[in-house]
Write a structure and sequence with these properties.
The chain is flat and about 105 Å long. It is 10% helix and 44% strand. The N and C termini lie far apart (152 Å). The model is unreliable at 1-27 and 648-652 (pLDDT under 50). With 797 residues, it is mostly beta strands.
């Protein structure tokens, strides 16, 4: 009875664990650490220019207020606006209303009209030396060195409200979630009093509850929970709680001068100081400073403004332009140095999540394991017994008994979970002529291992033989170039995979063919990949349906049955498409090349260029536990959400085309709505700039264009623009007529957008020139007739 009760209890526990298992597993599974910010540094107009404010408008365009006027940034290039009109003007604040930008500068209030693309002074007597603007409905509050005023846009009336401020120099304005207006001045904080309709100074309580009179409130920020207001200034950061009039000094940022505040992702507060950027959260604070040894450090420590956009990118404006750090939920790069707290490098070639939820990363310098508590363990070859036999680890495999095996350049290694050591085995054929020292691949069936090795072919070994103490194991079958009954083209095995019918597919080095071996019939069939595709086979993998994918330079061939295959070629990108790795993701496959990462849909077999950084990834692995795809590279791992293509649609479309000469821009919606486009004179030139308005430094977009007479002419003749280039220029057009500039993102499945372009007739062929030609011709003809008549008359006489 007691045994039955225990069995019953055990069953209940098992049921509960089965019910909560996936959630518990995801919660307890080791995760990659939070990454440090890596900054992309951008100079404004190619020179040292201080950026005082950053503003993103309703169209998604990023505007920069600088010490040298107004600029906007399209993700690749900065463009000056109104160079002549506002040359040398210092821009400190920007707001948007009714298709206009209102610009606060040292020369007063300016406006930028989207329709005309021109900057001009606002037609009011605005104050000079403006430092901050705040838009509330149809009113703009203007704060500067000469006080604060309210500008009514509809009535074009400006009203002064400086009276009552603790100091007339205003540096910050905030309206909290309750609708209360706060103003930060050079010598204190003030709050708008509705009854008296004027500002009242707000007394600041120090730590000993004494009133403090000196407070340079340089910047203000309401917390995300709407309960507190942060006040930053010279040497302090305060947190003020209006509900109980409580003041708390934040000491995590030291005595730095706080210049800018903004809310980041997940409750983080981003702080711009004169000593770099601080990222403050419940877990503490991280500081980012300029480091001349690191290209990805922030370019300057004097941070004038800090901003977090809707994609969670962090922007920092400073004395040398601005810097962008990606904080995306869909993409993040983890440096190995951050993961393992070591400067040792590793080029990752294999990634695997085992049944115990441990995460393994293997490469040319051993194997790294993240255990249940996310603690990294780095296993490498040492002089100690039972260490990893070689640092070059080429493949990871977990067998049916949950043992973890590693294929190395010195045999195969079985991991001993109890003591963290390795059991090393070397495979040799019955004749002792072919040994598997350099192991490249390892798979299994019900009873045996298939082991592929360089120089020595393929071995078939009973798994029970590995239970012995012998390090040298004799294979049951050896398939190689010398085995006449089961002959390979060579012994240089690159990889092996198994399909859903149990066939073994063998990829060899420097060979045109892909070999399929059927264990049930001992039949070998070879497919000449070069004859089928025009490319040499590079990598193979099996998808979730058991289909075999073989990648070649520029595409993949997919075998779905006997003599059934489909060929997918990547769209032209004018880049190196040599394949480095591939791995199943969802119902399809991701293929990494020297220049790109492609996603091929398993149903439609459509290839799309993925919106991720263009680096050389040598491993692709989908982790179904975290719904992430891990791409292994040199000394880094890129973590990508497996639905990155669904949530990052900007890479598929181009949402803006603009003129590079400050004459405004054309919006994609306007183009489709029938805008006439651009007209240039015969022999003239035009410059267009294209952008997807995706500012993430992790995303790299490339564009292609062509000049066509018809929108449907999309087959050939495309010009692929290099990475980091988005400017299209047509010089000295010699053919008059109507054209279309077709533009699309490289690898995008979307149809290109068409910008109408008209080339005027040359002067010699203009309408008035033609009329002049006709008039002259008529005059000459009239003169000839008159002359002939005159001559004939004289002759007759």
């Amino acid at each position: 009875m007691r045994t039955s009760s225990w069995e019953h209890l055990l069953k209940i526990v098992c049921i509960i664990l089965a019910m909560i298992g996936p959630g518990w597993k995801a919660f307890s599974a080791p995760q990659l650490p939070e990454p440090e910010f890596s900054w992309k540094n951008v100079t404004v107009d190619g020179k040292k220019t201080a950026v005082f404010c950053i503003f993103r408008d309703s169209r998604g365009i990023m505007w920069l207020g600088t010490n040298s006027g107004l600029y906007f940034y399209d993700g690749i290039t900065t463009h000056p606006i109104g160079e002549t009109e506002i040359f040398g003007t210092q821009v400190y604040s920007i707001v948007e209303k009714d298709d206009r930008l209102f610009i606060g500068s040292n020369n007063g209030l300016l406006t930028y009209d989207y329709a005309t693309g021109q900057v001009k002074e606002c037609d009011i007597d605005s104050p000079k030396e403006i430092r901050t603007l705040l838009l509330i409905d149809d009113d703009i509050w203007i704060g500067g060195l000469n006080g604060i005023c309210k500008f009514s846009i509809n009535s074009n009336v400006i009203t002064d409200h400086t009276k009552g401020l603790p100091h007339k120099s205003v540096y910050s304005i905030l309206r909290d979630s309750r609708g209360i207006l706060y103003v930060g001045t050079y010598n204190g904080l003030a709050r708008w009093d509705i009854n008296s309709e004027m500002f009242q100074p707000l007394k600041v309580k120090s730590e000993d509850n004494r009133l403090s009179t000196r407070l340079f409130a340089n910047c203000l920020l309401e917390s995300q929970d709407k309960e507190n207001i942060y006040i930053g200034g010279e040497g302090f950061l305060y947190k003020y709680t209006p509900a109980n009039d409580n003041w708390e000094k934040i000491t995590l940022v030291g005595n730095n001068n706080i210049k800018s505040l903004c809310n980041g992702d997940n409750g983080h507060i981003l702080i711009g100081t004169d000593d770099g950027v601080f990222d403050m959260s419940r877990g503490g604070v991280k500081q980012y400073r300029h480091d001349s040894r690191q290209d990805l450090s922030v370019a300057d420590n004097e941070i004038w403004c800090i901003y977090s956009d809707s994609q969670n990118n962090v922007w920092a404006g400073h004395e040398r332009g601005f810097s962008i750090a990606s904080n995306s939920r869909y993409l993040r790069t983890i440096e190995l140095s951050t993961l393992v707290h070591s400067g040792e490098g590793n080029e990752i070639h294999s990634i695997y999540r085992d049944s115990k939820a441990n995460l393994w990363f293997a490469g040319n310098n051993g194997v790294i394991c993240l255990s249940y508590d996310s603690t990294p363990h780095w296993y490498r070859h040492t002089g100690l017994p039972n260490s990893l036999s070689h640092n070059r680890v080429r493949a990871i495999h977990e067998d049916a008994e949950n043992n973890i095996w590693f294929a190395t350049d010195a045999g195969i290694n079985r991991f001993n979970r109890d003591n963290g050591s390795f059991d090393v085995f070397y495979i040799v054929d019955k004749q002792g002529e072919h040994n598997s020292n350099w192991v490249y691949a390892l798979i299994e069936d019900d009873t045996h291992f298939w082991i592929g090795s360089f120089l020595n072919g393929l071995h078939y070994v009973d798994k029970r033989k590995f239970n012995s103490q012998d390090k040298t194991i004799v294979s049951d079958l050896s398939i190689n170039a010398e085995n006449k009954s089961l002959e390979l083209s060579s012994n240089l095995v690159n990889d092996i995979v198994k399909d859903h019918e149990g066939n073994i597919w063998i990829l060899l080095f420097r060979d045109n063919t892909l070999t399929r071996f059927s264990p049930s019939s001992n039949e070998i069939i070879k497919y000449d990949i070069f004859d089928l595709t025009g490319g040499y086979p590079a990598n193979i993998s099996a998808d979730n349906h058991g289909r075999i994918w073989c990648a070649f330079k520029g595409g993949v061939i997919i075998f779905s049955g006997k003599d059934k295959y489909d060929i997918v070629k990547f769209p032209h990108t004018n880049s190196d498409e040599t394949v480095l790795a591939l791995g199943k993701v969802g119902n399809g496959m991701w293929i990494s090349t020297q220049s790109n990462v492609w996603g091929v849909d398993g149903q439609t077999l459509e290839a799309n260029l993925l919106p991720i950084p263009q680096r050389s990834y040598t491993a692709v692995y989908e982790d179904t536990l975290s719904n992430k795809v891990y791409l292994g590279g040199t000394d880094e791992i890129l973590e990508v959400a497996n639905n990155v293509t669904e949530n990052s649609t900007d890479y598929k479309t181009i949402s803006m085309i603009l003129n590079d000469r400050g004459e405004g821009y054309l919006n994609l919606a306007d183009i489709k709505g029938g805008i006439k486009g651009k007209t240039i004179p015969y022999g003239g030139s035009i410059t267009l700039v294209v952008s997807s308005l995706d500012y993430s430094p992790e995303s790299v977009h490339r564009y292609m264009y062509k000049l066509a007479e018809s929108e449907s002419d999309t087959i050939d003749g495309w010009v692929v623009m290099p990475e980091g280039t988005n400017t299209i220029t047509f010089f000295r057009s010699k053919k008059m007529g109507d054209y279309n500039v077709l533009v699309k993102a490289v690898g995008s499945p979307m149809s290109p957008i068409a910008v109408p372009l008209t080339v005027k007739s040359p002067v010699a062929l203009s309408w008035w020139a033609v009329i002049a030609y006709i008039s002259i011709a008529i005059g000459i003809l009239y003169w000839i007739v008159w002359y002939m008549r005159k001559k004939n008359s004289r002759t007759l006489q």
